[in-house]
Amino acid sequence: MIHRIAIASRDGKMVNEHFGHARRFIIVDLYDDGNYFVREVRECINACGGDDFYDRMNIVIDKIKDCEAVFVCMIGNAATMRLKERGIKAYVNPGFIEDVLKDYLINSVGGD
To answer: What is 2-109's CATH number?
Structure first.
């Protein structure tokens, strides 16, 4: 099975970006055997950029709507709930991308 994951990262190595500040998401396909493939980097506006927060957040969520999960280093409750409504799980799990993906397979996918 393939799990499509969005990762908020400033450097492409670590999960190190706040959901509302992210201007890009690394999109990976994660396989059950632990291997993953970086599909693309999706550029977007940041959700926390002005008075139109909810409109901006919807634009950001639309960019990752095909993902089952998003990894961030921080996220607010409003964004977490909005993602959940769209069927996307938010995980606050800063660290190396490879380690975070392994943890996801072990704790979330394998534990279902």
So the answer is: 3.30.420.130
